[in-house]
Amino acid sequence: MISNAPYGVEPWCLTESHLDLNLIAQSESVFALSNGHIGLRGNLDEGDPHGLPGTYLNSLFEDRPLPYAEAGYGFPEMGQTVINVTNGKIIRLLVNDEPFDIRYGTVQSHTRTLDLRGGTLTRNVVWTSPAGHTVDIQSVRLVSLTQRAVAAISYRVKPVDETLRLVLMSELVANEEVPRQSADPRAAAILSKPLTGEEHYAVDGDNPRAVLVHGTESSKLRLAAGMSHAIHGPAKMSTSTESFDDMARLLVAAEVAPEEELSLIKYLGYGWSSQRTRPALIDQVVGAIAAAKLTGWDGLLAEQRQFLDEFWEGADVEVDGDVEIQQAVRFGLFHIIQAGARTENRPIPAKGLTGTGYDGHTFWDTETFVLPVLTYTWPEAAADALRWRYAVMDKAKSHAVELGLDGAAFPWRTIRGQECSGYWPAGTAAFHINADIANAVTKYLDATQDEKFEREIGLPLLVETARLWRSLGQHDSHGKFRIEGVTGPDEYSAVKDNNLYTNLMAQHNLAAAAELVEKLDKEARELDVTAEEAASWRDAANDMYIPYDHHLKVHPQHDGFTSYARWDFKATPEDHYPLLLHYPYFQLYRKQVVKQADVVLAMQLRPSSFTDEQKRRNFDYYEAITVRDSSLSPCTQAVIAAEVGHLDLAYDYLAEAALMDLQDREHNTKDGVHIASLAGAWTALVGGFGGMRAPSSGALAFSPKLPPGIICLSFRMRYRGRIVQVKIHDHGVDYLLLAGDPLEITHHGEPLTITGEPQTLEIPPAHPLPPPSQPFGRVPQSRHGRE
Ligand code: BGC
Asked: Which parts of the sequence bind substrate (predicted)?
């Protein structure tokens, strides 16, 4: 962990006040800009030096073979990996013949600021070249949240004290050299030259511009990237453009006096397709750029601000008493909205579009961790991500057939819908992803009452996933419905019988599908659902087997789990975490050791399936064996710790989730930010200290309480067309409706109607519990005494 985070602590910005080359790759991820369609890592304008150059287009991937030493039936033969596409960020500068490169000469000052309200990354540099010439440079970059195919950069350079010959080279570069792949299985298989040139052109004149078109060899996708410029400079200035297969370049040369400046606005357009012809794709990009130029740089900035103002209006979280968490939760929300804003029928990957970690794949992270946040802050983005699941349902159905199952078996990890996991015990066997999708659907429907979505997307997703569960499980001789041989969220167990989380989530999936087909019987008939089939889902849900250890009075994670030997934590050196990089899975699978919240997550997502006493006992039991080797774990532990009354511990876990990337707590932020963990910071605050739950039936529930150290927590959320504000402080909680009609909620179980008039309610006194213990060496960093 980096003890002194490199970024200043401010409520609405993230500022890096000097450039530390050891942290350059982390900063590239943290400063990445995206709109869910285009992703630009926070690389320096001049391209060099870099940790990992990165420009991504959602779902633009290349196939890669998945070779097996010992293959088996149904193993996927092809994987998919995100590729680094044409880089339009590059603007190089020559100062009296010397290239601007921060490794040479003297950097007088270097700051970068990510503006969470403006949606821009600004860089200010004063640099003296090795020959002693000083320039003042400012660049501002944005990826438009309103114009999906567009990014833009404003770049200006001023000589500080003498007339200088300056040359700007604004480029598009394809097939950039990328650093060698790391051995960590969580990193990506980076392809060295993924793009084949198909066409290029450059045009000089008042509006110098260029386009490059490339294709991928195996996945057969085509991509066009274009740039166009508005240049301002002194009278003595020349420009020219040129293009080649893998690069296009605008050259601007000028003699600039100290009181003058040379500046340009670079408009970038991106498009890709599996079907469109070259001319069509070029037109798309050129058209996008024309529209962006019409809006103009100031207009793009204004649109960006307006979009984010609207987002924050129904999403902001204020934390009084902890400035780091305040910044971190907004930083997290900013990355979530960037990842989801304009996906439009495409997935939200585990790293968003901020890096190549996990090959750019999408997992259950999206439905379980990210969509709940979007559902309550920017619901149309949650709907978009679920529409993508629906769009790839044909592949999930084929996968089910291949597995000998009914309905749809969604892939554990993928870019375009096909299963890409080469390790089936922690891939295909993690069938819970299907119930996770169903759960995201029911939560979205509850929060929006979007009837069109319910009919067109929700129903088929619920029906096909219910079919899967019905065929995957079976009634035993006692009439119980059991699901054998599956992997739950905890990846240190695999292919087990009756994973509690899976059974409870499948139960919800089956019951929700049965309920919806009753409501939408005409549409359900079109999906060939019969009354008998729906009844069989209801039976399976009612008869679901829920494992319970009567002796220990806890829920085992799966059949037999509580009788396994415990992992020898005392004998495990601190540097042997994550365990998956140091021990064979065979050892992990037969011991009581938990990678990430599993039973604890079940208690968060299916709260009414447990008594309060069971929640307390289960939490303590699993706390002692959970090592948090996944960044998905601490946010869930925070929510349940808060619910059962371990408020200090909840605070520690909130911080672990929230600061995951700002403090690089898992040493892999360089591969991209941890989108699920960032979302988890919101969940820890709203679901943990706000106690917010949306029960399957009944009113939205809050059970607010605060840990010592947070003076006031206030959050806004969207729900059924309203904006609700909850403000928790030391003498109670204020409920206020900022928009929409009065809403029925519950406060610590008591019904309440909230309106446009603030109402203050008391918080019932907390009953402190003895703190639970963690595995040896895995105690979370304490939030107390942090100064
Ligand atoms: C976790 C999975 C998660 C994946 C991607 C793994 O380490 O165990 O639950 O889906 O990372 O974030």
From this structure: 364-365, 595-596
469 phi/psi in degrees, rounded to 5: -65, -40
List, in sequence order, every residue forming a beta bridge with 127; answer none if it has no partner: 107, 135
360 alpha carbon to ligand 1 midpoint, in Å? Answer: 13
CA of 409 relative to ligand 1 center, distance in Å: 18
The number of residues in the chain equals: 787
In the residue annotation, 523 being an active-site residue is answered as no
Are 28 and 42 within 8 A, CB to CB? Answer: yes
pLDDT of 519 higher than 70: yes
Q: Is the CB of 656 under 6 A from ligand 1?
A: no
- Of the residues 260, 491, 533, 656, only one is catalytic, namely 491
CA of 630 to the centre of ligand 1 (A): 6
Q: Is the pLDDT of residue 171 over 70?
A: yes
Mutational pocket test of ligand 1: of 184, 362, 363, 593, the residue with most ligand atoms within 8 Å of the beta carbon: 363
| CA of 491, closest atom in ligand 1 | 8
Q: At what angle do helices 647-658 and 675-683 cross, to 10 degrees?
A: 150
The per-residue pLDDT for range 29-72, each reduced to its tens digit, is: 999 999 999 999 999 999 999 999 999 999 999 998 888 888 88
Report d(CA 514, CA 128) in Å as an integer. Answer: 70
Q: How far is CA 508 from CA 389, 474, 720, in A?
A: 19, 16, 22
Query: What domains appear along the chain, each with residue ranges and CATH number?
Result: 31-64+78-313 (2.70.98.40)
pLDDT digits (tens, 9 = 90+) for 693-704: 998 888 999 999
Report the distance separating Cα 116 and Cα 144, nearest Å: 14
Q: Do residues 159 and 134 touch, judged by C-beta distance below 8 A? A: yes
Tens of pLDDT, residues 306-356: 999 999 999 999 999 999 999 999 999 999 999 999 999 999 999 999 999
Question: Could you identify the residue written with the tokens 């633009």?
Answer: 60
Q: Is the pLDDT of residue 787 over 50?
A: no
CB 538 within 8 A of CB 512: no
Pair of tokens at residue 30 = 């943290």
Whether 660 is in the pocket of ligand 1, judged by its Cβ within 6 Å, is no
Please check the confidence at residue 74 and state whether its pLDDT lies above 90: no
Tokens of 140: 């501002």
Write the residue with the smallest CA distance to atom 7 of ligand 1: 630
Torsion sign across C-alpha atoms 595, 596, 598, 600: positive
- Judge whether 272 is annotated as a binding position: no
Question: How many CA within 13 A on the CB side of residue 572?
Answer: 21
Tabulate helix, strand, coil % of the chain (nearest 5).
35, 25, 40
Distance 412 CA to ligand 1 centre (A): 10
Distance 362 CA to ligand 1 centre (A): 10
Contact 609, 602 (CB under 8 A): yes
- 110-134 pLDDT per residue, tens: 999 999 999 999 999 999 999 999 9
| pLDDT for residue 13 is more than 90 | yes
Neighbours of 702 (CB within 10 A): 23
The helix (H) or strand (E) run that includes residue 152 is strand 150-159
Is there a binding annotation on residue 365?
Answer: yes
Tokens 């009609």, located at residue: 741
What percentage of the chain reaches a pLDDT higher than 70?
A: 98
358 ligand 1 Cβ < 6 A: yes
At 344 the three-state DSSP class reads coil
Q: Which atom of ligand 1 is nearest to the CA of 412?
A: 10
Candidates 359, 365, 598, 631: which one to mutate for ligand 1, based on the most atoms within 8 Å of Cβ?
A: 365
Beta strand residue intervals within 245-348, DSSP E = 247-256, 262-273, 317-320
Q: Closest Cα to atom 4, ligand 1: which residue? A: 363
Q: Which atom of ligand 1 is nearest to the CA of 413?
A: 10
Q: Is the dihedral of CA 232, 237, 240, 246 positive or negative?
A: negative
| Nearest one of 735, 730, 698 to 715, comparing CA atoms | 735
